[in-house]
């Protein structure tokens, strides 16, 4: 079995939701067009939009800084969307593992 692809977003590189979307564009799906909203972010995590089908690891460095900058509500919404695609999530078959650093 091949190791899962790993991506790393860095909370020090953005301070707004739009900045988060820029980070996702640069790191997860460079050169791909997407809707840049929460529903479209959810779709990206399913795979096939430039992300690997079969899952991947998403490491969120400086996640505590992201929580401070984005606010609890936005941060928690993003984490919930990601975890929906991981172990025990409603779409766990997508195989996205979130690591908060």
**CATH topology descriptor:** Barnase, Chain D
CATH class: Alpha Beta
Name of the CATH architecture: 2-Layer Sandwich
Gyration radius over CA: 13 Å
Number of helices: 4
What is the structural class? Answer: alpha/beta
Strand content: 15-25%
State the fourth-level CATH superfamily.
Answer: Barstar-like
Largest sheet: 3 strands, parallel
Given as residue ranges, the uncertain stretches (5+ residues, pLDDT < 50) are none
Global outline: globular
Overall mean pLDDT score? 93
**Total beta strand runs:** 3
What count of domains describes the coordinates?
1
Order of strands, main sheet, comes to 1-2-3
Please bin the fraction of helical residues: 25-40%
Summarize the helix and strand pattern as letters.
Answer: EHHEHHE
Give the N-to-C terminal Cα separation: 26 Å
Describe the structure concisely.
The protein is 39% helix and 17% strand.
């Amino acid at each position: 079995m091949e190791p899962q692809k790993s991506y790393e977003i860095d909370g020090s590189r953005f301070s707004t939701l739009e900045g988060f979307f820029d980070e996702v564009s640069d790191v997860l799906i460079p050169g791909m067009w997407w809707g840049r909203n929460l529903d479209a972010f959810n779709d990206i995590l399913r795979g096939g939009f430039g992300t690997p089908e079969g899952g991947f690891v998403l490491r969120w460095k400086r996640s505590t800084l992201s929580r401070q900058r984005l606010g609890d509500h936005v941060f928690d919404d993003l984490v919930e969307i990601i975890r929906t695609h991981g172990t025990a999530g409603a779409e766990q078959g997508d195989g996205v593992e979130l690591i908060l650093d």
